[in-house]
Amino acid sequence: MHFQKELANLKKEILRLGAMVEENVRMAAESLEEKDTDLAQKIIMADYKIDEMEVEIEEECLKVMALHQPVAVDLRFLVAVIKINNELERLGDQAVNIAQRVEIIARQKKYNFIFDYSLMTKKARNMLKMSLDSFVNLDLDLAFKVLSLDDEVDLIKAEAYDKIKTAMTFHTDSLGYLINLLLVSRHVERLADHATNIAEEVIYLIEGEIIRHGKIKDE
User: Fold this and answer.
1) Rounded CA gap, 34 and 209, in Å?
2) Which terminus of the chain is more exposed, N or C, with fewer CB under 10 A?
3) Is 5 exposed, middle or buried (0-12, 13-18, 19+ CB in 10 A)?
């Protein structure tokens, strides 16, 4: 059936976009750890491809909805794809935000204080991978696992905030650097938030239930 082929193609395209975003997020984490401005610039320059693909996928979803007027699970699939598509584009934006902070941070000649974001970025990247895997395999348990991991990233963000805020009192000559270092924590936290949003859309796709705003699966 032509309609089912269109749905299969949309799934293929959203996963291709997901792979592109995963790679940009990976590079963002690496550029942050290595203070690699060349890699940061590569992320910024590549973002337009993600933006273009996001628009193309949304337009294709709307066209399929208009032509076939799907119902039930097919309609939920298309709605989920549109929303996941948007979350992926925002993930790409956060990778760019991290890259831009790296470019500023790397100009600092001397680091009086360094916060190690490697664990936080690793957790956020893992959440993104799990959320996309839950979509591929329609794995409800994996989607809920993503939701449970979000608190771990939030805790590291809180730790970064406390430590950097303290450092600001001792290194008043490096406030610009420290502010940008602090902003990184927000960008990485948002990576995890968008991964969580993708997992929520997978739960909606499978169960037909919207669980945003703290509504968790009934035991």
Assistant:
1) 42
2) C
3) exposed
How far apart CA 87 and CA 71 sit, in angstroms, is 23
Closest by CA position to 87, among listed 50, 59, 118:
50
Cα distance between residue 112 and residue 44, in whole Å: 27
**pLDDT tens digits for 206-219?**
998 777 655 544 43
pLDDT tens digits, one per residue of 21-52 = 999 999 999 999 999 999 999 999 999 999 99
Residue 60 has pLDDT above 70, yes or no: yes
**Rounded distance between C-alpha atoms, residue 40 and residue 10, angstroms:** 30
pTM for the whole structure: 0.93
Torsion over CA: 132, 213, 52, 5 (sign): positive
How far, in Å, CA of 158 to CA of 116, rounded? 13
The answer to whether the beta carbons of residues 43 and 20 sit under 8 Å apart is no
* Distance set, CA 44 to CA 10, 23, 205 (Å): 26, 13, 32
Q: How many CB atoms lie within 10 A of CB 147?
A: 19
Read off the DSSP letter of residue 1. Answer: -
Please, which pLDDT band fits residue 112 given cuts at 50, 70 and 90? Answer: confident
Structure tokens at 137: 């395999």
Instruction: Quote the CA–CA distance of 92 and 210 in Å, as a whole number.
Output: 24
Q: How far apart are CA 216 and CA 219, in angstroms?
A: 9
Which DSSP letter does residue 174 get?
G
CA distance 160 to 114: 10
- Closest C-alpha among 91, 96, 93, 97 to residue 183: 97
